């Protein structure tokens, strides 16, 4: 079995991805089966930890940069907000709808309007809601009964166009959302980990986390490692990035980012070249 694992030079990524896709995605399927199937069996040595509802997951910088969790249900939403409070969470990402294809995937665990609600001994109030075509950003004030004078602001980024076990139709909106969340995280120094959840807290959740990690690698290094990032997450939580289409989608996201950067450089070069032309040359155009 040939597996093209390991960090890939960014300059070589397009040819690497083309090689994975050759012969009806043969190498991509082989690589996916290794990182998704084989290592899942390895992780199952510690079954109790791997099947936990909530798992701390590593990022590029911190070993507890994310909390991956199942979508809250009616009996667990109080515990969810308790987790947010105790872990000093300022940003959380929801990549599922509450109901998909007639099946309940997640409880509506936040207030419907600006009237505050109790979740256990915590008081949560929605202070703003910005609805966009493919995601919604909500801000909540959260405080405990014992500390009413010290509320905390928590943001929820709710991505609404990601089907269960599948991938979004395009890469642009998810890339934009991941970068938006990362910008808010970077502007929240001292905050705790970012909570990410879908329904089961593995497939879409893992894909979001890996994309965040890989986009950071693109911005700070000359190599990136999708395979290694998925492998690392799966050492902490089983089934993170659950399907071959999700694994392939991560590669397509990177490819599209690199194509956009190349196009931007070409446009900037053209503008600079035109600006540098002698005035009489420009006038003859």
Brief overview:
Helix content is 44%, strand content 19%.
Structural commentary:
The chain is 44% helix and 19% strand. The chain has an 8-stranded mixed sheet. A two-stranded antiparallel ribbon has the order 1-12. The protein has a two-stranded antiparallel sheet with strand order 5-6. It is built from 8 helices and 12 strands. It starts with 7 loop residues before the first strand and ends with a helix. It is an alpha/beta fold. The protein has a single domain, classed as Protein-Tyrosine Phosphatase, Chain A.
Keywords:
eight-stranded mixed β-sheet; 8 helices; Protein-Tyrosine Phosphatase, Chain A; 285 residues; alpha/beta
Name the structural class.
Answer: alpha/beta
Question: Which fold name fills CATH's third level, the topology?
Answer: Protein-Tyrosine Phosphatase, Chain A
Which CATH architecture?
Answer: Alpha-Beta Complex
Name given to the CATH homologous superfamily: Protein tyrosine phosphatase superfamily
Ordered list of secondary-structure elements with their pairings:
Layout lengths: L7 E2 L3 H31 L3 H4 L3 E4 L8 E4 L7 H10 L4 E4 L4 E2 L2 E2 L12 E3 L2 E10 L3 E10 L7 E8 L12 H15 L7 E4 L5 H18 L2 E2 L1 H9 L9 H33 L2 H6 L1
Parallel strand pairs: 3-11, 4-10, 4-11
Antiparallel strand pairs: 1-12, 2-3, 5-6, 7-8, 8-9, 9-10
Helix pairs in contact: 1-6, 1-7, 4-5, 5-6, 5-7
């Amino acid at each position: 079995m040939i597996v093209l694992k390991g960090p890939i030079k960014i300059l070589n990524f397009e040819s690497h991805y083309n090689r994975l896709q050759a012969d009806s995605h043969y190498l991509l399927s082989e690589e996916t089966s290794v990182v998704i199937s084989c290592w899942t069996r390895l992780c199952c040595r510690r079954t109790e930890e791997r099947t936990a509802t909530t798992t701390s997951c590593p990022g590029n910088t911190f070993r507890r940069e994310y909390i991956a969790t199942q979508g809250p249900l009616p009996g667990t939403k109080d515990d969810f907000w308790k987790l947010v409070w105790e872990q000093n969470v300022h940003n959380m990402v929801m990549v599922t709808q509450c109901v998909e294809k007639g099946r309940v995937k997640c409880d509506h665990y936040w207030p419907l309007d600006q009237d505050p609600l109790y979740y256990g001994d915590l008081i949560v109030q929605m202070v703003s809601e910005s609805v966009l075509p493919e995601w919604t950003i909500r801000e909540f004030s959260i405080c405990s009964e014992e500390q009413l004078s010290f509320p905390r602001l928590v943001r929820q980024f709710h991505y609404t166009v990601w089907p269960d076990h599948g991938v979004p139709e395009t890469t642009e909106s998810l890339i934009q959302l991941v970068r938006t969340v990362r910008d808010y995280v970077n502007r929240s120094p001292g905050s705790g980990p970012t909570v990410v959840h879908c329904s089961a807290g593995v497939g879409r959740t893992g894909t979001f986390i890996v994309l965040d990690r890989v986009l950071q690698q693109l911005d700070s290094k000359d190599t990136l490692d999708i395979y290694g990032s998925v492998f690392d997450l799966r050492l902490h939580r089983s089934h993170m990035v659950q399907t071959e289409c999700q694994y392939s989608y991560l590669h397509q996201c990177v490819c599209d980012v690199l194509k956009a950067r190349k196009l931007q450089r070409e446009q900037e070069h053209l503008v600079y070249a035109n600006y540098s032309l002698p005035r009489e040359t420009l006038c003859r155009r």
